[in-house]
Amino acid sequence: MKRTMSTARRHKTALGAALACVAVLGTVATATGAQAATASEHTASVARTSSTPYVMNHSGEENADKGKAERSPEALVLSEFTTAHDLNWKQWDAKKAVATGKVVGNWCLETCQDKPLKGTLTLSDPKTVNGKKVFSSFTLKLAGGNGAYDSEDLQGKHPLATS
């Protein structure tokens, strides 16, 4: 009987040790994942140095007059005729920024107000304004082409507000 207790105790000890190993491995995996996430966030912040431009964003009532220097905004007023929102930034570096998102404008109110158009936005031509580097031009391309939309904002490169 003593031998049976000893075997049962060994099984419990082995099971306890196995559970402890699983717990330790889970902790190590979680810590490693957290370090990787922190490292990638750090890499992203290192990539955005003082030489990485901003965009002057006039989106929203609070920014309509003065604008706000932002990087990777969710929405952006491109001109008095065109706005982009739900922007998903694919690139943002010292030379250009590229995003896909939804586009609305005065030129498509009848069709795009309730169903925004999909497009690709490229910001370029950084310059220094009031001590801050900002993008000064944009190019907008609609997915599937311009179709029936005849808007200057869809034709080549255009100036972007820099203040």
Strand content: 25-35%
Estimated structural class: alpha+beta
Order of helices and strands: HEEEEEHEEE
For the largest sheet, list the strands in their spatial order.
3-4-5-6-7-8
Q: What's the count of strands? A: 8
- Please state the overall shape, judged from the principal axes of the Cα atoms: globular
What radius of gyration results from the CA coordinates? 27 Å
What is the first-to-last residue Cα distance? 87 Å
Q: What is the overall pLDDT average?
A: 77
Main sheet makeup: 6 strands, antiparallel
Low-confidence stretches: 9-47
How much helix is in the residues? Answer: 25-40%
The total count of helices amounts to 2
Question: Helices, strands, pairings?
Answer:
Elements: H1 2-47, E1 55-57, E2 68-70, E3 76-77, E4 82-92, E5 97-105, H2 109-112, E6 117-129, E7 132-142, E8 157-159
Antiparallel strand pairs: 1-2, 3-4, 4-5, 5-6, 6-7, 7-8
What does this structure look like?
The chain is an alpha+beta fold. Helices cover about 30% and strands about 35% of the residues. It has 2 helices and 8 strands, in the order H-E-E-E-E-E-H-E-E-E. It has helices at about 1-45, 110; strands at about 55, 70, 75, 80-90, 95-105, 115-130, 130-140, 155-160. The strands form 2 sheets. The chain has a 6-stranded antiparallel β-sheet, with no helix packed on it. The chain has a two-stranded antiparallel ribbon with strand order 1-2. It is globular. Residues about 10-45 have low confidence and may be disordered.
